[in-house]
UniProtKB/TrEMBL annotation:
Database matches in InterPro entries: ACOT8-like_C, Acyl-CoA_hotdog, HotDog_dom_sf, TesB_ACOT8-like_N
A Pfam cross-reference name: 4HBT_3
Top-level taxon of origin: Bacteria
Protein name (record): Thioesterase family protein
Amino acid sequence: MTAFYQPLGNDTFRSTEHTVGPWGPDSQHLGPPSALLVRSLLALGNPSSSLARVTFEVLGPVPVADLTVSTSVERPGRSVELHAASLSHEGRAVLTARAWRIVDSDTTAVAGGDVPAMAPPASAAPMEIPDFWGGGYLAAVEWLSVSGGIFTPGDAQVWARPRVAVVEGFEPSPEERLFSVVDSASGVSSRVDIRKWYAINTDLTVHLHRRPVGEWVGMDARTTIGPDGAGLATSVVHDEEGPVGTTAQALFVRER
């Protein structure tokens, strides 16, 4: 397979083996379904508007199965719109998204405030993948480490590039590539061994201050775990031109 999903028609998609996540062979990493919903949101909106914020609510494990996408416009407008999308399996919603879109305008004269750019992908090293998780989603993405990484506990700077399309037969947009990987911020900066602990995000919020470009997505990520079973993962997201936005994820943390 060359994609996370195969189109079946009627807004239904068949999940491939590339979507399989770390928690079991029957559930997906959140990256591919997030990208699938963003793909539908981009098709719904005005092409001269940009995604400013997308929030995903994880209603349950996303199964490696046939999934159906539905979309709606919650708040139409000339300059700002609020759109919604839902991913369902056998009639039950497993993931929802709500997105604010802002119509493009020229703000070059006042643009600024970015943090420093990450070291480029060319200066990063390939990450080693351990035998206990060497397939599925992890193998469908190319991973490079500036510092830290998926199996090194603590803060990390990582570049990622999907090796496959989101939907078979369609070239992914830069936004689709970005959303394919940014849920991994909590994984690359994890402070726990996933063989011994659950650290599962209940949501994902992505704010973008400009449109992403190119194939590579950088995450300058960090995770904080509190004493009461909850955590917070955040990242500054980059492309090869510099920072493009931020992410935040609430974490459910439990010993296995």
